[in-house]
Amino acid sequence: MKRQRVAFTWYLNWRYPREAIRDLWRQTKWFFQRGWWGYADCDWWALNDYLSTWLPHAIRQYEKKGMSYPGWGEANTSKKWHTILEKIARGFEAKKKQDELTWNKKRTKDFEKDYKKLQKEFEEGMRLFTKWYHNLWD
Q1: Domain extents for the chain?
Q2: Which residues make Cβ contacts (< 8 Å) with residue 68, sequence separation at least 6?
Q3: Cα 90 from Cα 124, distance rounded (Å)
C-alpha cells in the first residue's frame, strides 16, 4: 500500500532526514516511470488500488465533457449511457471501500452486511465495465 502524506510532512522530513531523502528519490523515480511507461513500480504493486483511485474520476469525465455515447442496446440515449458510466465508477469506488473495510482493525457489527452490499455493487460495475469496455472512447 502506498504511503500516505500527512499534514506535517515538514516535521517528518526534519525528524527523519534519511527517510525524507529516500522518499524524495522514490517519488522522483516514480514520476519519471509514469512518464515513460504510463505507470510506476508502486502502481503495479497494488494495481487494483491504483485503478480504483483514478478510474472513477476518469469515467465521470465522459458525463462532464459531454462525450458521445454508443447509441445501441442499453445505452441508446445519452442519459442511459451516463447511468451506465456512473454504475461503473461506483463499482470501482465500492472495491476501494471494501478494501478500507477489510483493513480497518475495528470491525463493526454490520461488517458482513456492508461488505456484501459493496461486493454486489462492485460486481455490477465490473459486469458493465467488461460489457462496455470497447465503447469507452471519445
Answers
A1: 1-41, 46-135
A2: 138
A3: 9
Q: Classify residue 122 as exposed, middle or buried by CB count within 10 Å of its CB (0-12, 13-18, 19+).
A: buried
* pLDDT at 50 (0 to 100): 84
pLDDT, one tens digit per residue, over 69-119 is 787 888 888 889 889 999 999 999 999 998 888 887 667 778 888 889 999
Q: pTM above the 0.85 mark?
A: no
Write down the residue that cell numbers 465495465 correspond to. Answer: 129
Give the torsion through C-alpha atoms of 20, 22, 25, 31, to 10 deg.
Answer: -80
| Selection from 46, 53, 44, 47 nearest residue 96 by Cα | 53
CA separation for the pair 60, 85 (Å, rounded): 7
Share of residues in the chain with pLDDT > 70 (%): 87
**Measured distance CA(21)–CA(18) in Å, rounded:** 5
User: How many alpha carbons fall within 13 Å on the CB side of residue 68?
Assistant: 6
Give bridge partners of residue 77 from the DSSP assignment.
Answer: none
Q: Grid coordinates standing for 20? A: 525524507
C-alpha cell at 138: 471519445
